[in-house]
Amino acid sequence: MKVEVDDVVLPGDFSEEIDTAGEKGKVILGPGLRKEIDKVYITKAGVLRKRAPNTFWVDSYQKRYVPSRGENVIGFVVQKSGDIFRVDVGSSCPATLSYLSFENATKKNRPEVQVGDVLYAKMLVASKDMEPEIVCVDSHGKKGRLGVLNEGFVFKCSLNLVRKILNPSCPLLESIKNEWPFELAAGMNGRIWIKANTMRETIAVGNAILASEYLSDDEIKNMCTNIASILAGHVS
Amino acid sequence: MRYLFLSSCEKNFIHRIISEGHRLDGRNYNESRNLQISFGSEYGSCIVSLGETKVLAQVTCEVTQPKQIRPNEGILYINVEISPMAAPQFEANRQTDLTVYLNRLLEKCYKDSKCIDLESLCIVVEEKVWSLRVDIKVLNHAGNLVECASIAALTSLAHFKRPDVTRSGDSVIIHTLVEKDPIPTVLYHYPVCLTFAIFQNNILLSDPSFIEECVCASGTEEVNSSGGLLVVGMNQYRELCLLNLSGAALYDSSIVHKAIKSAADRCKEIVDTVKKTIMNDDTMRQKRVRINFSDIITSDHVLSLNKKDLNIRLKNYNADLPKCDDEEMIEEFEDEKPEPSKYDVVPSLPQTAEIIAKKGASTWIEISSESDED
């Protein structure tokens, strides 16, 4: 079926807008779109989106993470074997992490990472046929925000929710940051690490994030003040 | 089945909040999740959801030869299937330990407790009996599969009606549903399996969620003593049908007593719900109302995914918030705006935002990424 941008689309649909744009210049195809011979087909159910000038993708509800290069993810160290760590990032197979890809790591100075630790890392290699590889340093050899996350709590959510809360226009983090202090690391693989001063506050952050999934911006603000008042003990 | 991995921080967190008297989803220790039962268009098919755990059960029947040792009894067969649809760690078409465990538990609960009158399933002694087959398919696994599957099996068995049979001489006629009213299965009692998670050998949680199930059996550095999962099978007359403990050994027998006590009340509650929903369904069917699984789907398609039970929830949090369409609420927001924010969300690396404290705020977060962090 022929569809337009911002329509609800199903696998097998096609859009003429993409084809005409492709004749004029280069087009960037995001997730959910695939080129078959000379036509671009939709391969996922969702909403077709466009960003000017020529980027197209399908917004769909998804929980399973498919690695893609350059994304920040949260993983659990599953196994230490020789000079690599195996890290579970929620993809179909575990990612590898070399012990040298930490800041200041040398062959003698090994990083202290235990099995069961939570890592915030960047996806370096994500190809169809190979194991994904992650690193805990940037291209300058600095760790930045990456590395082992201590204490706190990790929970899973849909990939859409992570994108939603990381969207600069989303009022969620803006609203709760005024209410109580917390730390948060959101992995694009649908895992969010949170840490606050007390257990109750940590749970409150998780509650606010999960509750915001299907709320509009105004409702999110409302919900955050509600949670803050529960936290303060005003609502019994 | 791929091994599902839990990080140590999750384990520590769960252990700590539970020892402090809370649960991750804001329930009390002895509080269960929301139970929902809906029926399909045929007799004996139902979907039972316990919170986010969903199980589909379907009973079918066929005429077979009875077993040699029990020539006048029908056959009950229970089959459990868990596909990758339930949770990503399961593989398709492969039996896992969990499948076998679940199958065995349900067989113990429904076959060995003799809750079904198998003799009434006999048509011709030593020749023809009805064989009932309960197919249980796990649609979503969010913890406490045993309880959900057992309620599903019980409901579908109680809901099922087999075709009527008449014998004239040597020939046996099986009537279609149109010709003669079908016959319901005779159940002497209604047993239900309930799961309890035992934490640190003295805390008893009813209806554990997935993460609680995973965590309870494993100890951490802080908590040496580990717990386990206790399955209690009980019927509405408070008779014990099944007891199964997996995980660590128990040091204290009083915890079993406690579990059985709270199971008795819960079982009564569940059986009453099951009976009531079946009664309702029967009256609906007699009025020729079409009942099928499409009733579950709400027409409000965006909100159909809206979960009322969050995995992480404060005790007093209520998902049904008042809408902020009052003027008062808008005023409130305007009042808040002039308040200077202590923290600021700024985009840093691609796809990341971080909260950075503005000057003069408390110093619980590292302020800049440029500073050397050794």
Question: Could you characterize the architecture of this molecule?
Answer:
The complex is a heterodimer of chains A (236) and B (374). Chain A contains five helices and 15 strands. Chain A has 236 residues and is of the alpha+beta class. In chain A, strands 7, 8, 9, 10, 11 and 12 form a six-stranded antiparallel β-sheet that branches. In chain A, helix 3 (171-177) packs parallel to helix 5. Chain A is flat, with a radius of gyration of 21 Å. With 374 residues, chain B is α+β, with helices and mostly antiparallel strands. Chain B is 25% helix and 26% strand. Chain B starts with 7 loop residues before the first helix and ends in a 17-residue tail after the last strand. The model of chain B is unreliable at 322-340 and 360-365 (pLDDT under 50). The chains are: A alpha+beta (236), B alpha+beta (374). Chains A and B meet through strand 7, strand 13, helix 3, strand 14 and helix 4 of A and helix 1, helix 6, strand 15 and strand 16 of B. Chain B: It comes from Galleria mellonella.
**Percent of residues in β-strands of chain A:** 25-35%
Quaternary structure: heterodimer
- Mean pLDDT metric of chain A: 88
- SS class of chain B: alpha+beta
Low-confidence stretches of chain B: 322-340, 360-365
Tally of extended strands of chain A? 15
Q: Which stretches of chain A are low in confidence, meaning pLDDT under 50 for 5 or more residues running?
A: none
Q: What is the second-level CATH architecture of the largest domain in chain A?
A: 2-Layer Sandwich
Number of domains of chain A: 3
Which series of helices and strands of chain A comes N to C? Answer: EHEEEEEEEEEEEEHHEEHH
